[in-house]
Amino acid sequence: MEIYPIIVSLILGLNTLGSSNAAEITCELKNVKYGIENITPEGKTFFRAGETVRITCSERFLLLFTKESTKTFHCLNDGEWDSRPTCVDIRCEIPRDGRLFYPSDSFYGEMKLDVKRYYRCLTGYRQTAEMATCTRDGWKPDPLCADITCEAPNIPNAKIVSRERTKYDVSSRIEYKCNPGFEPEQLIQITCNSAGEWINKQDCVEKEGSCITPILENGYIERNPPTEDSIFYSCNTGYKTFSGNWWGVATCNNGRWSNEPQCILDEEGCVRPPKVENAVIISKPQEWYSYGSHVIYRCRRLFTIKGNNRVSCHNTGWDEAPKCEGSICPPPPLIKDGDYIIEDKKDEVITKVSYSCQSYYVLKEPKKHYSCRDGIWDTPPKCLKPCKLTPMIYMEYNLQPVQDNYIRHSDEEIQLDCKKGWNAGGVRRLDYVMGTCSDGKITIKKKCDTKEIFG
C-alpha cells in the first residue's frame, strides 16, 4: 500500500474543506459605529451570501446616499453589500433655487442639521421666512421663496366682468362693476401689485333714494329726477314691453317697483351686437339686424384682436364675439444670478428697470435702463460668472491666495501674485503671473515655478 497518494488526498480534502468554509463568509461589517443607534442582529460581524443586517441611525444622522434612517442591507455573492451600511451627518447643500438671491457669504461653512442662514428672494417673489433652517428633509420652509400672487378679490355688491381666476399674477388687471342700485356706476379697474395686494379698489355703496333705478336690457328708462316714485320705459327696435305696449310704467312702493321693466323680442332678427371691451364696430351701425347680416370689430390702439372680427346674426343669436387683449407690461424678466431694480412705474405697473448681479458676478453688455414697449421687454443682460481659485490651482501654480478665492470676469488680463518665495523664472524673475477669467473659466499662462534661493 502506497502512503504518499493517501497523504496527498488528505491534504487536498482539507484545503477543499477550508475553501468551502471561507467562501460562506462573504460580507463583513467594518467599524460600523459612527452615528449608529441599533444593529440587528447585534454583535454579528461576518455574513454569508443572502443574509441581511438592519441598521438604524441616531437622531441626527441618515444612511449614506439616502433620506432614510433605517434600512436592511443584503450580502451579495461577490462579498459586497448591496449598498454601503454607513450613517452620515445630516447636511444641507446650498439651495439650488432660481428664485433666491444670495447676499455675500450668506451660505458658508458646514451646514449641518438645525443650522440657520439668512437669505433673500429675488424681486417678484415672496420670502416665506426670515431665515432658512437645515432639517432632515432639506431647507425649510419649503419653498423658501414663493410666487407673489393676488387672491381673487371679494368685492361686496359687485360683479367681476373680466375673466375670473382663483389667483392672479403681479401686474394683472381686472375690472368690476357695482350691482344695480350701487355706485359708482362706471367700470372700476384694479391692479395686482408686487406686494400681492389689489390697488385702486373702491367699495360699492348703495345709492340714495326710495327705489333704485333698475337696469333694462334692450330698452331705456326715463326717470327725472332719480328720486321720482314712477319710471317710464320703452324698448329698442325689435323689442316690446312684456305687456305688448310700446311703453311701460312702474311705480315705487315701499322700496320695490310695482313690476319689473322687461323688453322681449318683437320680430325675427338681432338687435345690439355683443359689446367687446376695448373695441369699436367699424361697420355701419343699425337698430335692427336681419338674419345673415354682420358687424365688424376693430380693437383700440395697443390691443390685439383674438377671434373672428366678423360677427353674424343667426336665428340663434349673434356669433361668438372676439376679444381684444391688451399689451400691458408683464413683470420684468428675471436673470440668473442677478436681480432687477425698479426705475419707473405707470399705474403701479413696472415699465423700466435696471439690473445688477450677485457678489463677484459681472453684467455682460450692461445698459443703464431696460424698458417695456407695447407689452414686450428689452432683452435683459446676462451675469457672467466669477472664477474660483481652488486649493489645487494654488498648489499647481504656487499662487498667493486671493480674497474669498474668487476673481471677477474681465476682458483684460489679471495679475496673480506668486506664493512667497516663488517666482515665474526667466530673466526678470517676476513675482506674479498673468491670467484671464472668462465667465467662470480661468486660464493662467505661466506657473510660479522657480523657488528663490537666499544666500
Question: Can you describe what's shown?
Answer:
The relative contact order is 0.06. A 4-stranded antiparallel sheet has the order 16-18-20-21, with no helix packed on it. Strands 23-24-26-27 form a 4-stranded antiparallel sheet, with no helix packed on it. It folds into 7 domains: 21-89, Complement Module, domain 1 (Ribbon); 100-147, Complement Module, domain 1 (Ribbon); 149-206, Complement Module, domain 1 (Ribbon), CATH 2.10.70.10; 219-265, no CATH class; 279-326, Ribbon (Complement Module, domain 1), CATH 2.10.70.10; 338-384, no CATH class; 387-451, Complement Module, domain 1 (Ribbon), CATH 2.10.70. By secondary structure, the chain is mostly beta strands. A hairpin with a 2-residue loop joins strand 35 and strand 36. The radius of gyration is 40 Å and the shape is elongated.
In short:
This protein is mainly β. It is elongated and about 115 Å long.
Q: Order of strands across the biggest sheet? A: 16-18-20-21
Rg on CA atoms, Å: 40 Å
Largest sheet: 4 strands, antiparallel
- Which class of the largest domain in CATH terms? Mainly Beta
Instruction: Write down the overall geometry.
Output: elongated
Q: Level of helix content?
A: under 10%
Amino- and carboxy-terminal Cα gap: 86 Å
Q: Provide the CATH superfamily of the largest domain.
A: Complement Module, domain 1
Count of discrete structural domains: 7
CATH topology label of the largest domain: Complement Module, domain 1
Structural class category: mainly beta
Sequence stretches where pLDDT stays below 50 over 5 or more residues: 1-22
> What is the number of strand segments?
47
Query: Whole-number average pLDDT?
Result: 81
How much of the sequence lies in strands comes to 35-45%
Name of the CATH architecture of the largest domain: Ribbon
The tally of helices reads: 2
